[in-house]
Specification:
five-stranded mixed β-sheet, 31% helix, alpha/beta
C-alpha cells in the first residue's frame, strides 16, 4: 500500500462504516484513525438486503460531519468494491453488488470497500513482519499483513474447523450462545493454536464484540484490541491506499 503525505493524512475526512451481521457503525475519521465525530450504531436491517443496508448507512451518514472520502468494512469477500459473498447477512442478493458505487452515488466522495477484518487490522498493525487480525463477532473474520501490506483475503471463517463445522460455526456468536463461554474459549484456544501452526505469525490481534469474553492467558505476541478498529481502519485504508 502506498503511503500518502503526512499533511494529507491529517487532512483526510473519511466517512467510515463498519458493517456487521448484527450492527452497523459509523464515524468520520482522519488518516490516523482518529474519530472526529461520536460513533453511531444501529441494528443491521432484517432482512439485510443491499437496499436496506445502504439506506441505513445513508441515514447514519446524516448524523456525521462533512467528509472527503468513504470507507467501509464488509463481512465477506470484496473485490474492487464489489461484494462477492455475504455469509453472515443471510441473503444472496449481495453477490455482484457494487457497494462502493452505491455509497458514492448516495453520499458523494470516492469509496473504498474491503473485508471488515482487513480494514480493522489496518488500525492496529505495527507494519513489521507477519501480522494477523481475527475478529470475533457474528462470524469469524481474519486478515493477514506482511510488513504492513495487506495480503489477499482468505475466508478462513468458511473453511472447516472441526468435523463438519466451519470456523464461523465453531467460534462465531451462535457457537458462543449455544455452547457457553467455557467451551467457546476452549474452541478459540484451539483455533489460535491451529492458525499459528498454519501461518507462524509474528503478532496476532483479536477484535470484535466477543473478544471481551476471552478468559485464557494470551502469550505476549497476541493482544486484544478495541472494537472501534473497524471504523478507525477507514482512515488508514485511504492513507495507505494502493
Amino acid at each position: 500500500m502506498r503511503k500518502t503525505s503526512k499533511n494529507s493524512a491529517s487532512e483526510l475526512r473519511v466517512l467510515s462504516f463498519d458493517i456487521g451481521g448484527t450492527g452497523l457503525k459509523a464515524s468520520v475519521v482522519d488518516g490516523n484513525g482518529k474519530m472526529l465525530a461520536e460513533r453511531q450504531r444501529v441494528h443491521t436491517p432484517d432482512p439485510a438486503t443491499p437496499a436496506k443496508v445502504v439506506q441505513a448507512l445513508v441515514d447514519l451518514a446524516k448524523q456525521m460531519p462533512p467528509h472527503t472520502h468513504i470507507a467501509a468494512g464488509f463481512p465477506g469477500v470484496v473485490k474492487n468494491n464489489v461484494i462477492h459473498t455475504a455469509p453472515n447477512l443471510g441473503t444472496k442478493a449481495w453477490t455482484g453488488f457494487d457497494l462502493g458505487k452505491a455509497l458514492t452515488r448516495h453520499l458523494g466522495g470516492p469509496s473504498l470497500i474491503i473485508n471488515d477484518a482487513d480494514i480493522a487490522g489496518l488500525a492496529v498493525i505495527k507494519r513489521k513482519g507477519l501480522e494477523m487480525m481475527i475478529t470475533l463477532g457474528t462470524g469469524f473474520g481474519t486478515a493477514l499483513y506482511r510488513d504492513g501490506e495487506l495480503m489477499p483475503h482468505m475466508e478462513i471463517g468458511q473453511s472447516l474447523a472441526h468435523k463438519d463445522k466451519t470456523y464461523d460455526e465453531y467460534v462465531g456468536d451462535k457457537a458462543f450462545k449455544k455452547e457457553g463461554k467455557k467451551k467457546w474459549n476452549k474452541h478459540l484456544e484451539k483455533t489460535i493454536a491451529a492458525l499459528h501452526t498454519l501461518l507462524n505469525f509474528d503478532r496476532l490481534y483479536i477484535g470484535g464484540g466477543n473478544a471481551r469474553h476471552i478468559d485464557f492467558k494470551l502469550p505476549n505476541h497476541i493482544s486484544i484490541v478495541s472494537n472501534d478498529n473497524g471504523i478507525e481502519g477507514g482512515g488508514f485504508l485511504w492513507r495507505y491506499r494502493n
